[in-house]
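Blinded run. Sample ID left blank on purpose so nobody reads anything into the name before looking at the predicted structure. Input follows.
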Amino acid sequence: MQGTLTADASGTSSANGVLGTGATQGKVTDTGNMTSHADKLIYLAADGDYRIIDTVTANDALICGVFTSQPLSAEAYVIYSWGTSINKLIVQFGQKGVYFYDIEFDTNRSVVVQWNSSVYFYRCKISEQADVFQSYARFESCYLTKSGIWGHGVYADYLTFIYMIMSKCYCQGNSGTGMRVVGNSTGVCGTGTVLDSASTTGTHGLRMESGAQMTNYSTAANGYVVIRNFAVGINAVVGGMVKDTANNVYSGNTADETAVAIGYGYID
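Blinded prediction complete.
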């Protein structure tokens, strides 16, 4: 399914930006014109890059991850406030190779992927939780968010494989998670992904449980994983495992990593 992105602003850079590498996120500079554009999508025509805007000042927009090449002064950009609005998506059992581009899903638990399916999301905004059950789901340049308590940006249950790159999960309420992965599920949360929270009360950036395994694999060239402002950045319990965390960038968490040994949690 192909949606249509909605342009929110456009302009040209007032100075050279930042390519980004490792812990340094890419940046576009346009003096006085970047306020209020956090959590939107920016497009640079020179390389065809679409990136999530992570944080802003009046002059700068920092992205999730890195750009293909350094943004230059006078380079054109467009900022999009996401795409075609759809209230709810249910991918029923056994649907293979389902693709979504430029869509905003905007109701409570707005995306549900049922068993034995494979689904791909590109440049999508998913509000109020994505649920994936025993399926494959890939999120690239996507923004996932959940308000209220006990919510998750994405919830992956029972033999699911999750692939999250150049994306952002934002937990708006208490006692929620950016990504909760359970039931012997596996996946990758890496390459420029940002997990962020509005509250450090009971929140987890990445919570792995019941035998679930996840890698945070990332390289300097593609940007490191950023996990910030949670009660626990990574929490591994009941046989949960997280590997390749050495390059993770932590800030503002009460605790960055907690592996519950009595429950055979493991973080490498």
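Unblinding after everyone has recorded impressions. The CA atoms of residues 31 and 59 lie 4 Å apart.
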